[in-house]
Amino acid sequence: MTSSEVVAGSSAGATMETKLINDTKRPSPWRHLVAGGLGGMTGAIITSPFDVVKTRLQSDIYHKSIAAKHNQSNIKGLRGTLYHFVETVHMMRDIYVKESPRALFRGLGPTLFGVIPARSINFFTYGNLKSIIAGKSREDWSTHLLAAACAGIVTATATNPIWVIKTRLQLSPELSVSSKSAKVSASRKVIGDLIKNEGIRGLYRGLSASYLGVTESTLQWILYEQLKDFTKDSKLSSMSTMVSAGLAKSTATVITYPHEVIRTRMRQAVPVGEKPRYTSLIRTLKLVLAEEGVSALYGGLSAHLMRVVPNAAAMFLIYEFVTYRL
Prior knowledge:
Mitochondrial carrier fold, mainly alpha, single chain, 77% helix, 326 residues
């Protein structure tokens, strides 16, 4: 074989490899949009009860009453961790019995109204931006870092008002309603009171904490992509997809969780006649640490993990299936 044939063969091989990369990892741009929305919707519906409990445990309204009732500050280590998981189950039971089964899905409307566009925007932006950044080269961790950070910022800015409304609904037991018309009225009341008392700026409460939370989604994407690369196969099996997504989400969550608590505090409603306490990211952090201690920054972590890990597993499973297998 001549040297020219070797070069030609190498070039052909490189071309085929590049084509394979493009075919397997770079589907139609709109597939990311549809797949992300479907995945987010499914995960949100399945794990809604855990989201309600998590939001309440993050709020000082519930955190202080629970701490006083159970003296949870004295429960530490593995026993404390197990206690918080049991506490999550007990709280779900109490909501079911004392309020109503529907209360476990309070805020699901705004959640879906936010999750579907949020996941669509995030997956669409990330999936297409990483292709643009990488060009014809192989994607690496820096590509995933930049694409995920940009996607997180765009998503947080676009959907913050929806999450503020959802948080207010979940923190208002008096808004537990049974009929569809009553739910609509409750949502309108929350929005009306919010605009009346806090103005348009109220819809963007907690946005700074959401930007801080971009670190979580960025870390999650990087870990997930690395786990995919570790398998040497972009088309993961269903089990591998769920395990990879679950590991990536749980790791990113534990590392960055305090921002979730801070964001919830900044979004919760201000009691009538009182001045806002959680007015900024730094002030909220200082108040929580001074008044409740470091443990308060991890309030609701067990409920959060019980929600986000299966949520991520379901979401990425559907995303991979719709994007690469349909």
